[in-house]
Amino acid sequence: NAAVKDAAVAALTAQDWTVEVSDLYSMKFKAAATAEDITGGVKNAENFCYADEIKLAWEEGRLVDDIKKEQDKLKEADLIIFQVVSEWWKCLVVQLRCVHITKSFNPDSKMSDKKAMLSFTTDCPESVYSATGINGDINVTLWPLQKGILNYCGFQVLAPQIFWDPAHVPAEARSSMLESWRTRLQNLCEEVLLYFAPLDYFDKEKGFQLKPEVHEKYASREFGLTVGIHMGKPLPANSQLKAGV
């Protein structure tokens, strides 16, 4: 992961990008969402609701410094790459501590003009994360991360960069992975985005169910709309791996 991060920093810097790295390990960044994220006390200590309290603290400027610093970085960024380790189905933990306005329910989200993507290493070969592999379809694993976190927070989502089982392949294979990553970074922001069903496909008054006209549009198709919204049909192949699928 360090090598992948270093390759990205070098490739983007060479293209005159301004690159800033948040190394959460060295920063000892506290990932857990607790009342400690708020300064000046909470409004309802007896019935503490993190979502309500953190939103109010954000509005009143009462978030702790480590969160404020990361929020400021997000405000300045055009592209955010989350470089993480994926093992035992764990791929990414992103606290909504850093993003409190979402495009899904607010088209004016401050994140809506920013691109984001996952770049991660796995602990198993690609076959293990297939539709017939023991870990299951990687598209299913990625859906709650790319839709439920990145897209929900308003980001434009680029296809992930996956490094399959780098700890157990020859050095030449790892070098090839890094070279492919460097090549992709040359035109990363020109890529077509991953597709997610827009908010207006759903009827808010009926529990955010697909509107009848949308359901009818896709009724005759072989595959469902997305991995998460599959309409009882076969899952669309590679919809969380390839742009525009």
Automatic annotation (TrEMBL):
<dbReference type="GO" id="GO:0003955">
    <property type="term" value="F:NAD(P)H dehydrogenase (quinone) activity"/>
</dbReference>
<dbReference type="Pfam" id="PF02525">
    <property type="entry name" value="Flavodoxin_2"/>
</dbReference>
<dbReference type="InterPro" id="IPR051545">
    <property type="entry name" value="NAD(P)H_dehydrogenase_qn"/>
</dbReference>
<dbReference type="GO" id="GO:0005829">
    <property type="term" value="C:cytosol"/>
</dbReference>
<dbReference type="InterPro" id="IPR003680">
    <property type="entry name" value="Flavodoxin_fold"/>
</dbReference>
<dbReference type="GO" id="GO:0071466">
    <property type="term" value="P:cellular response to xenobiotic stimulus"/>
</dbReference>
<keyword id="KW-0560">Oxidoreductase</keyword>
<comment type="similarity">
    <text>Belongs to the NAD(P)H dehydrogenase (quinone) family.</text>
</comment>
<protein>
    <submittedName>
        <fullName>NAD(P)H dehydrogenase, quinone 1</fullName>
    </submittedName>
</protein>
<feature type="domain" description="Flavodoxin-like fold">
    <location>
        <begin position="2"/>
        <end position="184"/>
    </location>
</feature>
<dbReference type="InterPro" id="IPR029039">
    <property type="entry name" value="Flavoprotein-like_sf"/>
</dbReference>
